[in-house]
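Human: Not sure, check this?
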Amino acid sequence: MNVSLAKRVNRLFIFKRALPVTLAALIALPLAEVNAQQVTILRGGTLIDVTGSSPPAQTNVVIEGNRIVSIGADAGPSGAKVIDVAGKYIVPGLWDKHLHYKDWFGEMLITNGVTSAFVQSGGGQTWLHAQNEGVHKGKILGPRMFFRERSFDVFDSVSEAREAAKKAITELKPSFIKAYTGLTPEQLKAVAEEGHRAGLHVEGHLGISAIDAINAGIDGLTHASGIALSVLRKEDLERVPDMRVIDTGRRRVIWPEIDTWDESKVGSPNPDLTEYWLFLEDPRRLMMFGMMDRELAQELIDLMIREDVFIESCLVYVFRHVLDRLDEYRMEDHLLLNDPQLAYIPERIRVNVLDYTLLDKMTDDEIALMTKGYRNFQWFTKTFVDAGGKLLVGPDTTSLNHATMLPGIATRREMQLLVDAGLTPLQAIQAATIWPAKTLGKFDDLGSVEEGKLADLLVLARNPLDDITAFQDIEMVMQDGRVLRTGYHHNYANPIPWPPGGQIEYDGFGPVSEIPAIISSISPAIVAEGGGDLTLSVRGGPFLSTSTIEFGDVRLETELVSADEVRATIPARLAQNVGSYPVTIVHRPPGAGKTNTKYFIVKFR
């Protein structure tokens, strides 16, 4: 088994030399050159129809520009670029429903077939939007991104929560609404009402029960949060606070009262905790699933079906320590992280991915209860889907504080775990294609391979309806009508790097550096490449006559507008090229203090 797994992983490391000549040659072309082909025909493949129809064999898919114009026996126009996919299988591009995007993700996501994503966070929003524009223009390798823009967490009142939702919807124009653990049921109801009024779905990583959230108007349960609180008998729920917590010593918190909502829960972890594995290792949520009452669980499933509430499927993350495939995935992770072509994966991520020390701290009885929790949740998942419930694959890739999910790898693993839970391969594929697109209101363009839709698709060597591991053998990735380069490359680099957070630092001493200025914002924060001179406004303060704007390593002639604003002209030559440029305020001696750093982004035109 180990040798077989090593061979499968190795196929991901190398460029796909075994492809038919026409396909391999096309993948080798630069993006712009591929996009210049006005008509592309995928000839002779079997289309996997995720809407449930029987897949026709030897189908031709004709793509004009970035859209699919015909599917069937039509040979297409003469002069078109023909890609022979006979004996192969054509499926829609995959979605990652829960992505914390970083600048090194793109190659791994695309190589593993993820062409669209719900972006929960990552870098700053300005940087994320620059990334998304670059993807749409074919300049940056990565998924289509749809943003929450902000989350809704702790508020002092219902009216404050409502006004925050109104403001965010009007000013930020999010693709969906994300509620978080600090919301009371009443505040969640207000946020949900405003989201629905704007035509947006509302999902939540919640600190309340699923039943309370559904009654408040939630549309989806992120990380399946809230479910554990709704499927335990009262006597079992009362046992949970006394169960053991495994604390790493890096963060200590007080377990809240388990009762109706009260303000003591705000800012504290709750029994539905899905985060902080590296800060407070709390396996009690898994153990709660081990105490699941299936009668209560069935009642919750019935309620979710009636109210059309989806579950974000996150088995690969939430249950990572007790998966049946634990040894298989650990071995694959070791092989991946020892591949020199993936040397760009940050060290912190490597440490987290390989960290399974929680298991060394648990007793046999605790592990047994966690494992029973996994079995119960497998049952819950299958029962929910068989009843008509919607699952969306969302493995939480890869949140910085608990980064254990490798981009793209986690998505295909989640589909495999859904099949292990009893879903059909088609149901698992739908969870990563049709349901995310429909939930976001994008099914007219994405989520399936159909005439009139955007050409986001994959070509597989094997039939995924026979074996879901066919997604380990992706032979081609097309996004927006472009055939993208796949495989891992040690020199892969994002043209607009993720700006790290700047920290206050001191070069000297004296009254200026003891109380350095703070930058709160810069304007503009983003421009297109190839522009002319521009005026940069930096706000924050307190600024002095000695305050000087430093752009990259160049100090600019700076005008003191007020105690909270300085301005300078950035010469065109300094901002000609795409990238992320640090902006700080330094002070001329004496003192020479330096502020925090903001990043000025030059995007593709």
